UniProtKB/TrEMBL annotation:
Signal peptide: none annotated. This is Alternative NAD(P)H-ubiquinone oxidoreductase C1, chloroplastic/mitochondrial isoform X1. InterPro entries: FAD/NAD-bd_sf, FAD/NAD-binding_dom, NADH-Q_oxidoreductase. Keywords: FAD, Flavoprotein, Oxidoreductase. Residues 84-439 form the FAD/NAD(P)-binding domain.
């Protein structure tokens, strides 16, 4: 994994193999000796050692991690006096918390050093991933690099994979001291990061292993890479079918928001060249959506080549034949390699979830999976000690109202991987809207915690729901006007403006705003030109 520090002052001290046993000699409080000595790392027995050099020393020494013998380095923060905030995950929860921390006014000695860790080099504005398939946006607009977004801030960024966390803030181990070490994060590159405050915001991943064949043959649509793979396969199928009569068949499992938005986007892209078969276990689409959004979506889907298979669940997915050369892999490299190969066909076995329906089989060229997700939380180490994070039945970290993980006063959790109920006891949905609002509170509450002020309880404000239905179509139901749904091109513009406002930084917002305006102007000129041409040619 690449490691990128955005401020030159961040010094990393590589681990020296000869120093394997140093952790035994200097078990803790290296930080107390000054930044330049805060460098040790360990690797011993069969596990990786973490040195936790907290000022309190209560958790100092070696923590064994259950990995093979691997080099580790202790990250040296630029300043050994200022609080250290480590944010895991740079999505709506993590990135926006970092930006919120940056925007707050701090007393000089208390402004924390903020380190953001993400496995990817891009922040991804997931609600607009569909527009990559329709060609309405360019990747840089909805997936800008962290290095660009954070260029004018003091936030540090590491591109690395989070492996595990060793918290030490539970059970009052660190006492009341404000800046004592809260624990250690271990990254895949071998880097160990001590923190005073930790923010967990790793989001969730698609869950495909629910029916036989789904993990092997269906593509999820949750990340930038997923969107690129789907786009790649659509292009491959479009190229294969060019000039032929046969239709492209796309099977889409799930008709929640994601499934319906994908169905609308892909059916518009394929037009008469393909059919989208959208399968849902419920007898309706988007069962939890406001009725206005659902009706608008049904209208659009029925006007396109979308076949709704409602009241069915998918029992299995198999591949037709066994042409090894065209084995579809979910690895990007393999996908690229398969470009000139024959495209496979898949068979979905559908079982009725309702009485009166017959079992079905469905043949498809491409299977997309939008059902279910799995919250992502780092593994906790060492495993044999009671450092656990309380999880709900879905596997999300349970937090109190201030967004701190229950039992862990130094760990905040937000977004898809966290669980909180609203005042009426309903679990908050895993949406960008929730994560975005939580980031505001997490940033503020970190400020309050560091400055010894009272923390605020998070209150979610539902602003309404939006969905894209194509290049010039959307449905927007604001929560503040009962019964109103804005549809069609106006809804589409409203949604785009709402998302433009939510892009992460002013600079990025401005660049994207100019780009979208330019594209709109070019599209308008093209449309006027084509109308004029038609009028003049009398057709
Ligand atoms: C296609 C799609 C459309 C959506 N549309 C909407 C919508 O219209 N409205 C809405 O409100 N919500 C929508 N959502 C949901 C919304 O995107 C999520 O709820 C939101 O992104 C959650 O924010 P988060 O910070 O918890 O996670 P994310 O935004 O997913 O960020 C998590 C980050 O953690 C990183 N990460 C994960 N694991 C590791 C690791 N081990 N090491 C390092 N980094 C890691 C990831 O790279 C990612 O950058 C949509 C989601 C998808 C997939």
């Amino acid at each position: 994994m690449a490691l990128t520090a955005l401020t030159a002052s961040a010094a990393l001290f590589p681990f020296n193999r000869g120093a394997k046993q140093w952790n035994r000699l200097f078990p803790s409080s290296l930080r107390g000796l000054g930044t330049n000595l805060s460098f040790s790392a360990v690797s011993q027995r069969r596990g990786i050692g973490c040195i936790a050099s907290g000022a309190t020393g209560t958790n100092g020494g070696v923590a064994e991690l259950s990995e093979a013998d691997t080099e580790s380095r202790l990250y040296s923060w630029p300043d050994n006096k200022k609080p250290r905030v480590c944010i895991l995950g740079g999505g709506f929860g993590g990135l926006y918390t970092a930006l919120r921390l940056e925007s707050l006014v701090w007393p000089d000695d208390k402004k924390p050093q903020v380190l953001l860790v993400d496995q990817s080099e891009h922040f991804v504005f997931k609600p607009m991933l569909y527009e990559l398939l329709s060609g309405e946006v360019d990747a840089w607009e909805i997936a800008p690099r962290f290095s660009d977004l954070l260029a004018n801030t003091s936030v540090l960024f590491f591109q690395d994979m989070v492996k595990c966390v060793r918290p030490s803030d539970h059970l009052g181990l660190n006492g009341p001291s404000k800046y004592s070490c809260g624990g250690t994060v271990h990254l895949e590159s071998g880097l160990l990061i001590e923190y005073d405050w930790l923010v967990l915001a790793l989001g969730a991943e698609a869950k495909l292993d629910v029916v036989p064949g789904a993990a092997e043959y269906a593509l999820p649509f949750s990340t930038l890479e997923d969107a690129r793979k789907v786009d790649f396969w659509l292009k491959t199928l479009e190229r294969r079918n060019f000039g032929q009569d046969s239709l492209i068949h796309v099977a889409l499992v799930g008709c929640g928001y994601s499934g319906v938005e994908l169905a609308a986007t892909i059916s518009e892209r394929l037009q008469d060249r393909g059919v989208v078969h959208a399968i849902n276990v419920e007898t309706t689409i988007c069962p939890t959506a406001p009725p206005g959004n659902r009706e608008a979506a049904l209208k659009v889907l029925s006007s396109r080549k979308v076949q709704l298979l409602l009241g069915y669940f998918v029992r299995s997915i198999t591949k037709v034949g066994d042409a090894e050369a065209s084995e579809k892999s979910t690895e990007t490299g393999a996908v690229q390699g398969a470009i000139e190969q024959d495209v496979q066909k898949y068979v979905l076995e559908l079982q009725p979830a309702e009485r009166g329906l017959q079992s079905k089989t469905l043949e498809a060229d491409l299977v997309l999976w939008t059902v279910g997700s799995k919250p992502l939380l780092p593994q906790l180490e060492p495993r044999d000690r009671p450092y656990d994070i309380p999880l709900n039945a879905r596997g999300q970290a349970e937090t109190d109202e201030t967004l701190r993980v229950k039992g862990h006063p130094r760990i905040f959790a937000l977004g898809d991987s966290s669980s909180l109920r609203d005042s009426s006891g309903r679990l908050l949905p895993a949406t960008a809207q929730v994560a975005f609002q939580q980031a505001d509170f997490a940033g503020w509450n970190l400020w309050a915690a560091i400055n010894g002020r009272p923390l605020l309880p998070f209150r979610f404000q539902n602003l309404g729901e939006m969905m894209t239905l194509g290049r010039n179509d959307a449905a927007v139901t604001p929560s503040f006007i009962d019964g109103l749904t804005i549809e069609g091109p106006i809804g589409h513009t409203a949604r785009k403006i709402a998302y433009l406002i939510r892009l992460p930084t002013d600079e990025h917002r401005l660049r994207v705003g100019i780009s979208w305006l330019t594209k709109t102007a070019v599209d308008s000129v093209a449309s006027i030109q084509s109308t004029l041409t038609k009028v003049l040619s009398g057709s």
